[in-house]
């Protein structure tokens, strides 16, 4: 009997993402018949109460047509619940006993998904080890945040390494489970079209945007201690940058892919005390309007004044042969005009235009890889306008669109965690983050924060519903670049 042990099993992530993902895998026959899903959290309830909680969540967060009575019954039959206070080490023995009663063998086939506060990582791992639930045959998945700086991240990684080998440690960045992120690899390395131009000789600049319209959404304490740089840039955006900039791996396997990502992270030019003011902009939203509705300021939502940034824009360089001189512009923020995650790649202009006359101005080609809200790939190219061209050929920029849902209409759109959970169960770490990746990311992020402190930089105000403070526009316009809004 195999077991998937979920810590934080009554929380928002479990109800919105993990359980709907597991239900989806089960409904397609991708979970083995002998798998039990054991939830654990501090809440006191029995198996029946937990199954009722999860059934309610599935009916709330899944499309109605996917809810089938037989599938629901089968999935709920897999669920068990064991209350656990991780601050009480003796309770881990009861957890181990409960797994054994289900027929699970902790030394063979135990998979653990740890979604708790970072301060509980250490006690949880120690409790698992003391109860015989760690070791060579157990796989551990860790949900972010993995620390708040390099030192705290190393402490967590050291605690994990004391009980779980690195090959069995699966650090999650859910962006890597998104189809379009994986499609970036297919686009680059499965086609002969782009790779010859993929570098300083063919690309003018790259923009990566992760824009949110929401504010704090109940994450007051966590977000105010974290800020946009650590919440978004340290993980999601640096992973997107690494996948965009990496060299072709020898094979599509965990070691080869992650080796190439680490090389990119080690090649990032530091943004430090000398460059923080010229290469970074931070902001905090004030009152304004989003989608036509008035919203309050960050301080209003928080209940007091704060120096935490809700917006970051960075000018980044990858100092290696391929990308020398090509700027990567990153921006992320809350209360922006639109919810959007995309990679925007502008190629260099043609070296000489043969077209003259009105309407003959050429625009550089652009590749836009959209991750959310819609997954799509768009290549913008110059095309001839219909007409007789008596005063010269008229040209217009036109899109070549690939809408992922439309192009693959016969495939169900999946939650990113479906792929990640299945890979955890199967033992494939390719789309998970290795320790040296995490620590490379934190090394670079810590230098930025030290640069902000050295220059006494504070967030600039911007109105909710705007694309950040005006200085973010200047960050790109000094180079003759405009943000892709």
What does this structure look like?
This protein has 15 helices and 17 strands. The chain is α/β, with parallel strands linked by helices. The chain folds into two domains: 170 residues, NAD(P)-binding Rossmann-like Domain (Rossmann fold), CATH 3.40.50; 302 residues, Dihydrodipicolinate Reductase, domain 2 (2-Layer Sandwich). The strands form three sheets. Strands 16-15-14-13-7-12-11-8-17 form a nine-stranded mixed β-sheet, with helices on both faces. α1 packs across α13 and α8 crosses α9. The model has no long low-confidence stretch (mean pLDDT 91).
Indicate the structural class: alpha/beta
| Second rung of CATH, namely the architecture of the largest domain | 2-Layer Sandwich
CATH class of the largest domain: Alpha Beta
Total number of domains = 2
Q: Compute the CA-based radius of gyration.
A: 24 Å
Head-to-tail CA distance between termini: 52 Å
The strand order across the widest sheet is 16-15-14-13-7-12-11-8-17
Helix content: 25-40%
CATH topological fold name of the largest domain:
Dihydrodipicolinate Reductase, domain 2
Name the overall outline.
globular
As a percent range, the share of strand residues is 15-25%
Q: In total, how many beta strands?
A: 17
